[in-house]
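USER: Study each token:
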Amino acid sequence: MIILFVSSHDAHDNMTFEPTVGTHESYPDKQYPLATIEIVVKYIIPRIAAKFGGENKVNDLMINKNGVGFNPGFEFFTEYSKKSGTPLVMCLHAEKAEIEKKSFNTQGAEILAFCKANSIKLISGLDVGENTSHFRDDIHLNEKGQKLWAQVLLKEINETITSCP
């Protein structure tokens, strides 16, 4: 069974294969000599600098979420599941703003359309009861949100296993 757990912003999150390790401070290519130094350099100094109007490099993680074209990874897993006879389920978890609007944004709509066009079973965060208390920030689930999805996925896995020949 393949379970793809995605959010709307993954629709255009295309791999670029740009080098990141050793070229960005959030992706170091060597260890700090002491954990204390790492805490000061990576966490304390940036927070102090941000309070005084300094640059917040922590949010600039070289992640490209605005790629051109629909993410080809969706097609890859669709074709693989068809060729191998492996069940495929797409879980589209909502972002906080989508929960507040009670609908997915345009990129989420692209994922929904892809699933419909390819007859992929889709489980929507909006349909399983995700709410704003399930988030630690605007897109990442907290323990409560993870628990909700664990229950949903356990049920789905059990149903898939019992229905397979």
User: Anything to note?
Assistant: Residues 143-163 form the longest helix (21 residues). The helical segments are 35-51, 72-84, 96-101, 106-117, 125-128, 143-163.
